[in-house]
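testing teh design pipeline on a random one, pls ignore if ur not involved
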């Protein structure tokens, strides 16, 4: 039995602690905050409840595996897990509206043909088929296994460029970026381009620089589906804490520590901080009077009419953008409201981190929140007259609560571009020291954080 110290009670630290406790190790989790969860937070006020971090779950198989491996119980026995259908509703700058079904690539193609015109579904499906090739090539080395010592093969983008037109003339010498995929393979349709790039922006990726293999992100969502947890994703944290306690894991909260504080520990697992220059997230939590209208999509995306300007405002000369892409989350969850006469909504944008923009400066956050609500109003989705109160969440709040530099959100690991999009390996090269979490292999997002824990537990092995 090894004495293992895990620094950080975020979702990856909790998942690793549950797995290592089950393997027979003596595990202590030290967390600087007053409680667990990290970026998976919850705000409760006046009978309303909000997730303050991630709100929906993709690849639930990661946590189904965790539930079974640490307790022989199905995940659905521990949390209320339901597919989000429709998966999303999109409002584009030209007034087009598009509703996409959940976990149905054929249904997505039909919806695209119906909303954007014949042929749109076929073009999108062809790109998603190439996204599937990326998934099949990278699933094991980039998600399920430790990063290999020789990462050179992962420096090559496995996206199979179509063998026609410019791609054929180039003879495969130039691998496209995500935005080039949109321009060359989606017919230049600005709506299909917005659909492809929005998924990358949510993960803090610059579509102009991200490899074409980033098409795997929408492929995974549209193939395996998106899921909601009753009570919010914070419920998943509660379940993991309970599982850890059942496996004898000790928790120390309010403990700001470093690996050097545990010279006698045989193993130390620590989170890898995201780079402060990466984007963060800005959220507006809305308590609304009036019931949730029947048939309201849980996720609506209001796309910017000026995508190139938005990319520049995020990655070139960071500043709050005048017309940002806004995601609107309206959970179909009675436990999130005081009664059936109220509703919650969460507006989110990808924004520059606190290291790039001072979100605490007077008026900056309030002005941006007003801009987000104005974007909804212009798109015909006006919630302003229903607002009882609102609460803002900026990258400065994320930085203060999670110690993530600048409140930055980590991106997933991607193959391609010489390995520029790989995350640091879980093995540090120092005996008994491992990295885990959203900014370590295999990268950001709830599913990858859970995979990071699984990889590290496999490296450590049983007691």
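output:
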């Amino acid at each position: 039995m090894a004495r293992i110290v895990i620094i950080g009670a975020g979702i990856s630290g909790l998942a690793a602690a549950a797995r290592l406790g089950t393997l027979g190790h003596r595990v202590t989790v030290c967390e600087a905050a007053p409680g667990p969860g990290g970026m998976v937070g919850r705000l409760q006020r006046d009978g309303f409840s909000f997730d303050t971090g991630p709100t929906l779950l993709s690849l639930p198989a990661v946590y189904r595996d965790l539930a079974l491996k640490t307790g022989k119980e199905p995940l659905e026995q521990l949390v209320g897990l339901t597919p989000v259908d429709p998966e999303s509703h999109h409002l584009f700058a030209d007034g087009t509206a598009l509703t996409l079904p959940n976990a149905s690539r054929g249904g997505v193609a039909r919806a695209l043909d119906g909303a954007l015109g014949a042929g749109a579904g076929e073009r999108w499906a062809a790109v998603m088929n190439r996204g599937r090739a990326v998934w099949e090539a990278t699933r094991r080395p980039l998600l399920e296994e430790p990063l290999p010592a020789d990462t050179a093969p992962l420096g090559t983008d496995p996206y199979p460029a179509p063998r026609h037109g410019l791609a054929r003339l180039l003879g495969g010498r130039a691998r496209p970026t995500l935005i080039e995929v949109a321009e060359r393979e989606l017919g230049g349709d600005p709506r299909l381009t917005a659909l492809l790039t929005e998924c990358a922006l949510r993960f803090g990726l610059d579509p102009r620089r991200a490899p074409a293999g980033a098409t795997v992100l929408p492929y995974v969502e549209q193939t395996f589906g998106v899921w909601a947890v009753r009570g919010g994703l914070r419920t998943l944290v509660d379940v993991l804490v309970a599982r850890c306690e059942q496996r004898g894991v000790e928790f120390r909260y309010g403990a700001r520590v470093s690996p050097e504080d545990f010279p006698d520990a045989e193993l130390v697992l620590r989170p890898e901080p995201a780079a402060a220059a990466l984007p963060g997230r800005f959220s507006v939590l809305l308590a609304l009077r009036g019931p949730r209208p029947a048939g309201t999509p849980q996720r609506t995306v209001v796309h910017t009419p000026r995508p190139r300007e938005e990319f520049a405002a995020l990655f070139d000369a960071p500043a709050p953008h005048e017309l940002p892409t806004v995601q609107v989350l309206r959970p179909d969850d009675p436990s999130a409201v005081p009664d059936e006469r109220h509703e919650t909504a969460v507006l989110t944008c990808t924004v520059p981190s606190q290291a790039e923009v001072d979100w605490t400066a007077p008026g900056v956050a309030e002005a941006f929140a007003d801009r987000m609500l104005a974007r909804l109003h212009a798109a015909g989705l006006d919630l302003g007259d229903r607002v009882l109160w609102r609460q803002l969440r900026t990258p400065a709040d994320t930085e203060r609560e999670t110690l993530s530099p600048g409140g930055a959100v980590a991106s997933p690991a991607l193959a391609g571009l010489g390995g520029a999009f790989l995350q640091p390996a879980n093995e540090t090269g120092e005996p008994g020291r491992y990295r885990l979490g959203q900014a370590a292999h295999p990268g950001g997002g709830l599913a990858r954080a859970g995979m990071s824990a699984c990889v590290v537990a496999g490296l450590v092995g049983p007691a």
